[in-house]
Structure formats: C-alpha cells, structure tokens
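Tokens as discussed.
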C-alpha cells in the first residue's frame, strides 16, 4: 500500500510549521505512521546543501541545481522509502517552492525547472499540497519577530509578492492537488482549514 505525500507551501512568514506538527499528531492519533520532513533538507547530505543554499552567496542557477541535488537525495533516501512502506509524508516545501522562489521570485522562469523536475522526480508529484496564502506585507510583519534572517528572508517585499504570484500560478496549473489555505487569520482558523482539507480527501 503506497502512502500519501502531502506538501506545505507558502511565502516565508505564512506560519505553516506549527500546523505541520499539529497535523502529524492528528494523523498519528488515528494510527498512521507519519514522516515529517522539509526541503531543502531531510537527509544529512540535503541538510548540508540547505546550509549552503540559505547561507552562501551564489548565482541563481547554482541555487536551482543545489535545491534539486538536495531533492534527489531526499526523495531517494527518505520520501520514496517512506511512501513505499505506507507512511504519510508531510513535507515542508517541495518543487512548487522552486517554481515560486527560483522561477518567479528570482526570475528564472519555468522551463529549466520543469526539465529538472522531470529528470529528478519522473512523474512523482505530491498527492496534496496545502498552500498557505497571505499578502507579502502581512508575512513580512510576522517575520520581523522571527530569528536571524537567511538569504531568502532578507529579500524585499516585491520579491515575496512575485513568489506569491508564482504559487498562485502553480495552484491554477495543478488545481487537482492544491488547496489554498487562507493564512492571514488567527491560527485556530487556519488549523480548521487544514483539518477540513485533509478530511475532505477521505484518505485517513
Ligand atoms: P524554510 O524551511 O525556513 O522555509 O526555508 C527554506 C527557504 O528556502 C525558504 O525561504 C524558501 C527557500 N526555498 C527555495 O528557494 N527553493 C526551494 O525549492 C525550496 C524547497 C525552498
């Protein structure tokens, strides 16, 4: 029995992390094995690549290639084995983030990303993507209280507005697996939407 692959997306400051943990508890409470993981990262090698991507100055194409190198390792060594044994995989960001950040935010466009997506993932796509959507200005205000900013968090509001547009385009293109979560409101309202989206699938 193949498990389900659920991804969480949104601009920095959308507040998805605590909901991923809550959803993991919710699913475990129903007796399911759950792997909570993230991108870039999720394996020792991919976590080292993450440090470079988030901390080291580099050109955009290098950034793209490192993100996909990390993804390949993560897929092969964590995600695909977990799905094969029937686990639910909750992944904080995946390839939609590459289309949004490198494609739209950095302006690389979709073609090279689509080629790498095909090369690295074959036909593998998430079964469900929860997109935490909110205006760039609201997310920026939330981020100021957070930890030391990484290379992405240092970007200006116009960058995050483009990233948001990138997510909107992906959501339209992949409407069957995307659910838009209105992430501007209170955490309790956001959580209700998360549970409703998951319950509506009838998979768990
Ligand atoms: P986060 O895990 O704290 O959200 O940080 C990951 C950062 O990396 C975030 O700013 C988005 C960025 N990112 C990309 O630019 N491209 C990608 O493909 C992924 C997965 C993340």
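Sequence:
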């Amino acid at each position: 029995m193949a498990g389900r692959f659920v991804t969480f997306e949104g601009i920095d400051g959308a507040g998805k992390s605590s909901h991923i943990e809550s959803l993991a508890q919710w699913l475990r409470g129903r007796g399911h094995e759950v792997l909570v993981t993230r991108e870039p990262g999720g394996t020792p090698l991919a976590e080292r690549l993450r440090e470079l991507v988030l901390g080291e100055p580099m050109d955009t194409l290098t950034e793209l290639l490192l993100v996909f190198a990390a993804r390949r390792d993560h897929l092969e060594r964590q995600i695909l084995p977990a799905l094969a044994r029937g686990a639910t995989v909750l992944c904080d960001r995946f390839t939609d983030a590459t289309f949004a950040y490198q494609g739209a935010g950095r302006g690389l466009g979709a073609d090279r990303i689509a080629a790498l997506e095909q090369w690295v993932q074959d036909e593998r796509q998430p079964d469900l993507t929860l997109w935490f959507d909110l205006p760039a200005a609201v997310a920026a205000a939330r981020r100021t209280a957070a930890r030391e900013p990484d290379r992405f968090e240092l970007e200006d509001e116009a960058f995050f507005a483009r990233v948001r547009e990138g997510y909107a385009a992906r959501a339209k293109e992949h409407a069957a697996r995307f659910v838009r979560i209105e992430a501007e409101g209170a955490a309790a309202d956001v959580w209700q939407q998360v549970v409703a989206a998951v319950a509506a699938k009838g998979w768990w």
